[in-house]
Amino acid sequence: MPNVGIQLRLHNYTMKKIKLIAILVLAVNSILFAQNKELSETKLNQELISLLDTIYYYDQNLRIVWNEIDKKYGNNSKQADSIIRVVEKVDSINVIKVTKILDENGWLGEDVVGEKGNITLFLIIQHSNLETQLKYLPMFREAVKNGKAKPNQLALLEDRILMEQGKKQIYGSQLMWDQNTGKYIVYPIEDPDNVDKRRAEVGLKTLSEYLKNWDIIWDVEEHKRQNL
């Protein structure tokens, strides 16, 4: 007949051993998590993060004001002309700062400058002149391949470059002002029937959803008729 006392002691010993192993596993995981967190934080360049945060603030807030003036007074108003001159001046200063960062460090990922800092690098190049955009396009493409930048951002830059070169865009991200209607319309798109397929491939929402930001209803057949 089995000795119940011995079995009970063995059971208790086994349970204590399992609990001890579980505690050790949790302790090791906690140490590893702390080490990884510390390592991740040490890779962040706080000086560049602070600089890029300031650049982002002026870049985006001025454009919010511009958008409000545009809605209130119109794209061709004196108020719009005034804010555009301010935006262009600030953009020129921001480009100098960001291109210096890129020239010295390459395209920095979120692991170095954080999410906002990484987005700021894209925004300033996106808002620069064609010469600057073309200069840093290869670096940006390489950054996307290496996971240091997002493909949807690259899509926007490529569309902007094509528009400035007088060519049809690919992803439908760029708009232009229609003097006849006094409204924004979609800049001509190459193969508009498949634009949403291309947008999905780079992580962009449908063109219809995107254009709701400007109260534009996307009509692919109308777009094709207007851009024969």
Condensed summary:
The chain has helices at residues 4-43, 46-73, 78-105, 110-126, 130-145, 151-164, 195-201, 207-211, 220-226, and strands at residues 175-178, 183-186. It is mainly alpha-helical. It starts with a helix and ends with a helix.
On the 0 to 100 scale, the average pLDDT is 88
Unreliable stretches covering 5 or more consecutive residues: 32-39
Distance between the termini: 95 Å
Radius of gyration: 27 Å
Domain tally = 2
Percent in helix: over 70%
- List the secondary-structure elements in sequence, H or E: HHHHHHEEHHH
Tell me the structural class.
mainly alpha
Number of helices: 9
Beta strands, count: 2
Strand ordering within the main sheet = 1-2
Outline the biggest β-sheet.
2 strands, antiparallel
Strand content: under 5%
List key phrases describing it.
two-stranded antiparallel ribbon; 228 residues; 2 strands; 2 domains; mainly alpha; single chain
Description:
With 228 residues, the chain is mainly α. It folds into 2 domains: 44-149; 168-228, no CATH class. The protein is built from 9 helices and 2 strands. It has helices at residues 4-43, 46-73, 78-105, 110-126, 130-145, 151-164, 195-201, 207-211, 220-226; strands spanning 175-178, 183-186. The protein has a two-stranded antiparallel sheet. Helix 2 runs antiparallel to helix 3 and helix 4 (110-126) runs parallel beside helix 6. The protein is globular.
